[in-house]
Amino acid sequence: MILRRLKEHTQAQHERVEALVRVMDDPLTLQQYREVLGSMAGFYLPLEAQLSDLDLPQVFRFEARRKSALLRRDLQVLGLSQTAHAARAQLPALSTVAHALGCLYVLEGATLGGRIIARHVERQLQLTPENGAAFFASYGDTLGVMWKEFGAALSGYAAEHGGESEILQGAERTFGALERWLRRTETAPA
């Protein structure tokens, strides 16, 4: 129930964000891909740090879901310096666990889309998880299991604790912050 509500509630935001992530272009250049990874770093690195400071229920296995290390590795493999992703997005306000779970919904949903992106990046640039595309291929063969596990945990949390409106707010705020960040980085000088 909560997953369906989240999808319906954030559909328009999801579509706007997806349109801003210019990684499915054909042809896709290495420079475009590097810029997308830099933008993702500016959002994911501080956001995952913020989430790690919250007391998320263990059932969500947040540490196993973090993608910052994969993103940093991709950036390093592709020759981006430490300062190349120094800019940080304005993060969504996540003042409750329920808000954070809405945020995780957005990040986990992006991971589902990452599989399609990873295939495209491999076809276009011959990049694999081993040589620069680990972030988008993050869960590998366990993607389906990780998504089902997340959905079950979220449904269980909502059934036990309520807070559906805060979960929806957290997702909406995360999509909004990501959209603002991507619009900013899209127009930023190279």
From TrEMBL:
Pfam families: Heme_oxygenase (PF01126)
Cleaved signal peptide residues: none
Recorded superkingdom: Bacteria
GO terms under biological process: heme oxidation
Record-linked InterPro entries: Haem_Oase-like, Haem_Oase-like_multi-hlx
GO molecular function, one term: heme oxygenase (decyclizing) activity
Protein's name in the database: Heme oxygenase
Species this protein is from: Deinococcus peraridilitoris (strain DSM 19664 / LMG 22246 / CIP 109416 / KR-200)
